[in-house]
């Protein structure tokens, strides 16, 4: 492509700064969070005593748990970056640009935006490290230097963000190249098959049986490995059943909605339950983990406090600290993911919102509907996951409620705060809605 | 004496240095179909937006005279009151329908009634009646993406009519359609408005659309330059 044309097309149009700023911000948040999470985990590798392996296994489990909300956030950033170009690229194709030209433009633009975001993310990591270093493990603060990643690692993670942007751009590009006119059509609602529910029930039953066998198998199999298997299975189960559960719940809500707000919210979820799940799926993991691990930690802490050595007591305290950190990180990622996706959706739907304003629809109605479309699946997801975890650890949950209610209340408070954080992130995107509902 | 549903006096509106309306006077007669024609940039869409209370003029007045009740000074109303007026008393049809893609056809139509406080079941019954009368029976549960351009535009017409609005504004309602579908949509629009004793104000650049209306105003440089009675 002619370099002059390329430069002209890459230049953001006046008033369209958001098309660059929002995806760049998304990549900045993704990069900063990945660097910080990995940095925190690496500090556990500095120890080499008899407890070191336990801490490493637990750090690895926490990383695995954060992979899903992080992937969701990264995916949101990449999709946002790609989707905001669709219309312009479709026009280019219709004007006769070759697929190669459109491809080059797409990859260059996405990578440049991601690079700007990744750079900001690295700065964010450098600023966050002293704060993360204050978190105490094994009776002492981790320290900023322990959580700060080496330059090679930082460069590798930043490069990963750029690769994610480029790959997503190429994948998203296929639709534009194949069907430029079809890009903006949404003829069919995305589905979620009932078979997911059947598989989920079978998996849940299997997990329950396995959980009951843990004590007898513990002698021969590492409990940590078994717990990781149980955890992985349960998380896969949640991902399997999540979109289907949201579809069923929102279909029922759409049929019984008595107000315009409820109808709009339910139909928004039903339009694409998988997308709704992608936004709030990270909460499923956090909620599941809160009940599952929170119960375990509470029981161990309360039931055997007098018999534990000081190092074991410290391990239990650190387990709870780690659990809360993982929960907080999960909610931060989900909050960021929801904020980014909502900002993008509001900008994409500005034309529709303006027409609704012309019809006399109050902004409050549209705002309440879009926020309900997030919060309703979020609550279904959080409560559903908590119930699933409760089934898996059924007898222990009852015991811990009796012997360590305060510990469980702390976890519940963190969960509630996380839900509040997501609610606030939907509130933060409200100002973007206002221009469409303001008349000259 | 002319029975006006809408009266506008000396409307002016500028966007920066561009003068969109330069002292326009308009009387919209009850039950007529009025076309506003003009080239791009002539001020016709701005005039429609000012008449409908979407945009406030820099100067001048717009008065709405409902069939029952006291006249309403549209230009004297605040933002919220104008929104309510549009929602409850006016209907709108846009160039590309601009329907809500997540909702079905019947829900798009019923939504206007639900916003005005009508119960869902009653709103759906009313909406179904309008869809049927516009030739869309059997398509109630289709999503907007599953409808053709002409069908979607007829859903938009049903949405504009379902609240019982006595004044309908249409902005290039056939602009995105082929000539055959355009003719069908105009049939539906005229039947459901002027054909039912309601009033239609339509902005268009298409002489064939204007020719179907009972009166045509032509605009140039923010002023009305001619008036033709059919």
Topology (SSEs and partners):
The complex is a heterodimer of chains A (440) and B (230).
Chain A: H1 3-10, H2 18-42, H3 52-94, H4 99-132, E1 136-137, E2 140-141, H5 144-147, H6 151-178, H7 195-217, H8 223-256, H9 260-271, H10 273-303, H11 310-348, H12 350-359, H13 363-392, H14 394-403, H15 405-428, H16 430-433
Antiparallel strand pairs in A: 1-2
Helix pairs in contact in A: 2-3, 2-4, 2-6, 2-11, 3-4, 3-6, 3-10, 3-11, 4-6, 7-8, 8-9, 8-10, 8-13, 9-13, 10-11, 10-13, 10-14, 10-15, 11-15, 13-15
Chain B: E1 4-15, E2 18-29, E3 33-38, H1 44-51, E4 59-64, E5 72-73, H2 79-89, E6 90-93, H3 105-115, H4 120-133, H5 149-161, E7 167-171, H6 179-192, E8 199-204, H7 207-211, E9 215-220, E10 223-229
Helix pairs in contact in B: 3-4, 3-5, 5-6
In short:
The complex is a heterodimer of chains A (440) and B (230). With 440 residues, chain A is mainly α. Helices cover 82% and strands 1% of the residues of chain A.
Task: Provide a descriptive summary of the structure in words.
The complex is a heterodimer of chains A (440) and B (230). With 440 residues, chain A is mainly alpha-helical. Chain A folds into two domains: 181 residues, no CATH class; 251 residues, no CATH class. Chain A has 16 helices and two strands. In chain A, strand 1 and strand 2 form a beta hairpin. Chain A starts with a helix and ends in a 7-residue tail after the last helix. Chain B has seven helices and ten strands. Chain B has a six-stranded mixed β-sheet. Chain B has a four-stranded antiparallel β-sheet with strand order 2-1-4-5, covered by helices on one side. In chain B, helix 3 packs across helix 4 and helix 5 runs parallel beside helix 6. Classes of the chains: A mainly alpha (440), B alpha/beta (230).
Helical residue percent band of chain A: over 70%
Straight-line N-to-C gap of chain A: 41 Å
Oligomer: heterodimer
Counted up, domains of chain B total: 1
Sheet with most strands of chain B: 6 strands, mixed
Shape designation of chain A: globular
- Number-wise, the strands of chain A total 2
Give the strand content of chain B.
Answer: 25-35%
How many distinct helices of chain A?
16
Structural class given helices, strands, pairing of chain B?
A: alpha/beta
- Mean pLDDT metric of chain A: 77
Query: What name does CATH use for the topology of chain B?
Result: Rossmann fold
Q: Provide a count of the helices of chain B.
A: 7
Strand order of the largest sheet of chain B: 6-7-8-3-9-10
């Amino acid at each position: 492509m002619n370099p002059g044309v390329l430069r002209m097309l890459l230049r953001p149009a006046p008033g369209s700064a958001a098309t660059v700023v929002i995806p760049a911000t998304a990549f900045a948040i993704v990069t900063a969070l990945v660097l910080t999470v990995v940095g925190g985990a690496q500090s556990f590798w500095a120890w080499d005593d008899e407890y070191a392996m336990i801490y490493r296994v637990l750090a690895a489990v926490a990383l695995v748990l954060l992979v899903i909300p992080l992937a969701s956030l990264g995916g949101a950033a990449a999709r946002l970056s790609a989707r905001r170009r669709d219309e312009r690229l479709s026009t280019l194709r219709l004007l006769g640009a070759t697929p190669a030209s459109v491809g080059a433009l797409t990859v260059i633009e996405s990578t440049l935006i991601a690079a700007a975001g990744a750079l900001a993310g690295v700065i964010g990591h450098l600023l966050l490290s002293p704060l993360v270093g204050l978190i105490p493990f094994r009776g002492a603060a981790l320290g900023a230097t322990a959580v700060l990643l080496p330059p090679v690692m930082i460069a590798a993670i930043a490069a990963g963000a750029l690769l994610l942007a480029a790959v997503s751009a190429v994948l998203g590009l296929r639709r534009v190249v194949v069907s430029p006119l079809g890009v903006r059509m949404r003829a069919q609602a995305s589905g979620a098959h009932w078979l997911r529910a059947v598989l989920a029930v079978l998996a849940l039953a299997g997990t329950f049986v396995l959980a009951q066998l843990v004590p007898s198998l513990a002698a021969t199999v590492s409990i940590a490995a078994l717990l990781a298997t149980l955890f992985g299975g349960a998380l896969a189960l949640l991902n399997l059943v999540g979109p289907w559960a949201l579809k069923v719940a929102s279909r029922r809500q759409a049929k019984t909605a008595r107000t315009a707000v409820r109808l709009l919210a339910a139909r928004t979820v039903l339009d694409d339950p998988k997308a709704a799940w992608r936004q709030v799926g990270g909460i499923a993991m956090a909620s599941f983990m809160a009940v599952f691990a929170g119960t375990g930690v509470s029981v161990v802490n309360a039931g055997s406090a007098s018999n534990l050595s000081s190092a074991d007591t410290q391990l239990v305290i650190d387990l709870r600290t780690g659990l809360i950190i993982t929960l907080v990180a999960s909610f931060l990622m989900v909050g960021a993911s929801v904020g980014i996706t909502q900002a993008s959706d509001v900008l994409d739907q500005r034309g529709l919102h303006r027409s609704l304003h012309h019809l006399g629809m109050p902004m409050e109605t549209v705002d309440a509907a879009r926020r309900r479309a997030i919060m309703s699946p979020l609550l279904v997801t959080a409560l559903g996951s908590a119930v699933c975890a409760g089934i898996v650890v059924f007898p222990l949950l009852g015991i811990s409620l009796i012997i360590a209610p305060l510990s469980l209340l702390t976890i519940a408070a963190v969960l509630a705060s996380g839900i509040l954080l997501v609610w606030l992130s939907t509130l933060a995107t409200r100002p973007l809605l206002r221009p469409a509902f303001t008349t000259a | 004496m002319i029975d006006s549903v809408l009266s506008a006096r000396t409307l002016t509106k500028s966007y920066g240095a561009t003068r969109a309306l330069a002292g326009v006077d308009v009387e919209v007669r009850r039950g007529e179909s009025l076309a506003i024609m003009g080239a791009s940039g002539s001020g016709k869409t701005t005039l429609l937006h000012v008449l409908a209370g979407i945009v406030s003029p820099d100067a001048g007045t717009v008065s709405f005279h409902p069939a029952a009740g006291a006249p309403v000074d549209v230009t004297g109303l605040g933002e919220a009151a104008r929104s309510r007026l549009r929602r409850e008393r006016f209907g709108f049809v846009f160039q590309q329908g601009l329907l809500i893609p997540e909702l079905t056809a019947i829900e798009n139509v019923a939504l206007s009634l639900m916003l005005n406080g009508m119960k869902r079941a009653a709103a759906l019954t009313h909406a179904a009646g309008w869809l049927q009368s516009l030739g869309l029976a059997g398509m109630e549960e289709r999503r907007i993406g599953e409808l053709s351009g002409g069908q979607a535009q007829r859903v938009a017409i049903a949405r504009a009519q379902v609240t019982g609005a006595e004044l309908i504004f249409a902005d290039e309602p056939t602009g995105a359609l082929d000539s055959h579908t355009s003719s069908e949509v105009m049939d539906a629009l005229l039947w459901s408005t002027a054909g039912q004793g309601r009033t239609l104000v339509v902005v268009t650049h298409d002489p064939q659309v204007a020719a179907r209306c009972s009166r045509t105003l032509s605009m140039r440089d923010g002023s009305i330059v001619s008036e033709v009675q059919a």
